[in-house]
């Protein structure tokens, strides 16, 4: 049986490196315009990133970076 190609729904749009439920996760623009890929998947990784990369150990406790589950 022949099924014409238009009988199928279109392919879903690509989402790139972003993730629907994890933030920050994906490619972000750095200050000089280059891209940097972050894939921080849990609170432990976020705290480690803040402490070692950003030198901001206080950031995970900031109300603006509270986990969505805590809101």
From TrEMBL:
Highest taxon of the lineage: Bacteria
In terms of SUPFAM superfamilies, this protein maps to:
CoA-transferase family III (CaiB/BaiF)
Record keywords, A-Z: Transferase
Asked if the record carries the keyword Transferase, the reply is yes
Which molecular function GO terms apply here? transferase activity
Pfam families cross-referenced by the UniProt entry = CoA_transf_3
Q: What is this protein called?
A: CoA transferase
Species annotation: Streptomyces sp. 900129855
């Amino acid at each position: 049986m022949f099924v014409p190609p238009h009988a199928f729904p279109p392919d879903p749009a690509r989402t790139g490196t972003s993730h629907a439920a994890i933030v920050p996760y994906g490619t972000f623009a750095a200050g000089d315009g280059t891209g940097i890929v972050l894939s921080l998947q849990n609170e432990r990784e976020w705290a480690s990133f803040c402490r070692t990369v950003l030198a901001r150990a206080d950031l995970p406790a900031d109300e603006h970076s509270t986990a969505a589950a805590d809101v």
